[in-house]
Amino acid sequence: MILIRFRLKRALWACAGLLVACLCVALGIFSLRQVARQTAAGVGQTPVPVVLLDAGHGGEDGGAVGLGGVVEKDINLPVTRKLNTFLRVMGFETRLTRSTDTSIHDLTAGTLRERKVSDIHNRFAMIEQLGDNDFFVSIHQNQFPASSSAHGTQVFYSVNHPRSVLLAQAIQKSVVRLLQPTNTRKVKPSGTEIYLLWHSKKPAVLVECGFLSNAGDVEKLQQDSYQNQMAFAIACGVLQYNS
Length: 243
Ligand SMILES: [Zn+2]
Description:
The chain is α/β, with parallel strands linked by helices. Helix content is 50%, strand content 13%. It contains seven helices and six strands; from the N terminus they run αβαβαββαβαβαα. The chain has a six-stranded mixed beta sheet, sandwiched between helices.
């Protein structure tokens, strides 16, 4: 009987201990999230901005095809998903134009051209839904077969909003500092060739992470670890822009 009572007591203490541990973990997660949200919101700024993330191309639209047959969409999506994870940990609200390997065209779009137009219009509609405090980050890969030595990240920005260039500069600077110390590329204003940036009225940038026509970039961009580093460097730039 004494032994049973002793075991019961021990079991109760174990349960109590477990409960306290769970509470501590829950409180810890809650506090971390609060800190993260405050970090993303910046000092004295509310509310937390929404970052609309766009993995370029998708589905039947593969984008550029690089050395060794690597397809652009297959790099854009994992980098975007990793970026999404880092930004959420940092406390940002995020939305994705797509989270799987798909085009987001209307089902009524018939021809390939109609599907492409519908896809880009639907992405643009998501930009239009953003609030004044929100912004847009698109992830793509570059291609320049005429000179296979061209390499490194370059960020393009929309000229329609004064904060776009600041976001582009923060991302470019972060990638150079954390990942590509010899990269001397400068941020560039987008022309009509980048539809979403040309028409966006919200702060908007497009990150060309690297060149699929450059052997070094192609090798790195396919590595999970490098994709993580790239996503983290971009996320740090976004955080810097927002602080
Ligand atoms: Zn692209």
